[in-house]
Amino acid sequence: MKNKDKKYFTLYNANLRTKTIVVISVALILFLIIILSSIFVDKTTALATNFTNINQPPSLEYPFGTDWMGRNMFTRTLLGLGISVGIGVLTSILTTIIAIILGVASSLNNLMDEAVALVIDLFGSIPHILLIILVSICFGTGIYGVIMGIGLTHWTPLARVLRAEIKKIKATDYVKLSKQLGHSKWWIAKKHIIPLVVSQVIVGLILVFPHAIMHEASISFLGFGLSPHEPAIGIILAEAMNYFSLGYWWLAVFPGLSLLLIVLIFDLIGENVQKLLDPQSVEGK
């Protein structure tokens, strides 16, 4: 009876893990389809004006309709999503690197730990949008300014998690024993600390992405982000507001829903990657 129960629970856990992997795979496939579609769209054709087809509602020929210049909103939205994803990837990497550096720095000594904690609290106390706008203006407008603005302001949650996790690991008996045995800090970090924080870094990297693209769209919508000539989602939504009250709802609804879909996909991936990397969360479901 015990063997049967043991086998049952083993299969049960394996099924949950398999379901988690399937969800991640489906989400990634959907994400790749969207991104590859945006890559292979001809920018010149996609942004071409056609004043004989202005403000056309959604149809088979134009799934997302056309705008006030007769441009295909479907291809414009795909190009905008490609820009948002590119910015999201770069800012996520930059954010993660900063968080890792500060997390490691906090483990060196008490003075560095207090300094890192102070910097985290300082940056965390300032509203994100305001800080992003200020930093992006300092680095100039455009894609570079947006990347630096978002990347230099979104590291605080992950840095706080890494700092707390490293402190907890350093307080364990096996780390204290390793110090008493004369092992170097690098050896202890390589054997005991890095393997235990990798999962937090991966999940943090993924979960920063949706925040990054939402903030990119937000500051572009407000006029502090990308150039108005770029087909970014924030620019598309800002332009659409001038026509939304006239009944041209598709100019804002479809680009907005597409951006929301990307955000939900990455939230789903992050949540399930966390389940996959944390066996306790998988068993608890």
What does this entry look like structurally?
The protein has 285 residues and is an all-alpha fold. It has a single domain, classed as MetI-like fold (Orthogonal Bundle), CATH 1.10.3720. Helix content is 76%, strand content 0%. Helix 3 packs parallel to helix 7 (156-170), helix 9 (185-222) runs parallel beside helix 10 (233-244) and helix 9 (185-222) runs antiparallel to helix 11. The longest helix is centred in the first third of the chain and has 38 residues, at 2-39. The chain is elongated. The two termini are 24 Å apart. The relative contact order is 0.14. The model is unreliable at 4-12 (pLDDT under 50). Keywords: Cell membrane, Membrane, Transmembrane, Transmembrane helix, Transport. It comes from Methanosphaera cuniculi. It is found in: Cell membrane. This is Dipeptide transport system permease protein DppC. Residues 81-270 form the ABC transmembrane type-1 domain.
